[in-house]
Amino acid sequence: RARAVMELEPETIAIAFVGRVVVWKGVDVFIEAAKLLKASAPSVKFVVIGGGEAEFLKTLQESVVQYDLQGDFLWMGPRQDIELLLNGIDVLTVCSKRGEGFPNIIGEALASGTVVVATDVGDNRSIVRNDQLIVPPNDPTRISVVWQFLLDNPGDRSKFEKDGITLSSKLYSVEHMVNQTDRMLTDLVSLQNER
Questions:
Q1: From edge to edge, which strands make up the β-sheet containing 91-94?
Q2: Which of 43, 60, 118, 176 has the fewest CB atoms within 10 Å around its CB?
Q3: Residues 6+ apart with CB under 8 A from 145
């Protein structure tokens, strides 16, 4: 269903940005990385999901046209069906330049079995927990290299998908949250009793 919504062919690899389209989220870096990858990866489509600053969005779309990538980009705007769409995306890319804490989209993507490539800002590294998929901020070349690795190594990509599901169910499940909260509260009671 997700692929049908995005009008993607089954053999197409979908690399997506999901988030607010604002300067610090690095959509411009995503586009630069797409330009670098496209020559060696004609079956890839780039999906941008999210709304934001209209003037910045216009500038981004103009750069896609300038790079002759307009046929390779799908601009979906803000959506309410992210859970569905994540199931049709092969690689989520978080290109934030700064300002991240714990981006929910990473946890959501991991839980859906979507590989996540993310910049090394905020908690991204501690959420993804795979140094092969962490890149420096503002580095489209490194992003394109990681994308190419994932395209060239479908077995690794499949392993990363499974690892993400395992990681999210282990660390971010309701059961884990309840157990961690119970442990913290027990420790606080013990500390109070010692006083």
A1: 73-77, 44-49, 13-18, 91-94, 115-119, 134-135
A2: 43
A3: none
Radius of gyration, alpha carbons of the chain = 18
The residue among 96, 33, 28, 17 whose CA lies nearest residue 60 is 28
Q: How many CB atoms lie within 10 A of CB 156?
A: 13
Question: For residue 134, what are the CA distances in angstroms to 35, 39, 137, 185, 186?
Answer: 20, 23, 9, 34, 35
| Structural contact between residues 130 and 112, judged by C-beta atoms closer than 8 angstroms | no
Tokens of 73: 């980009």
pLDDT along the chain (195 residues), means of 10: 90 95 95 95 94 92 96 95 94 93 91 95 92 96 97 94 87 79 88 82
Scanning the chain, the segments in alpha helix (DSSP H) are: 2-5, 27-38, 54-66, 82-86, 104-111, 124-128, 140-152, 154-171, 174-194
Map tokens 């586009």 to a residue.
31
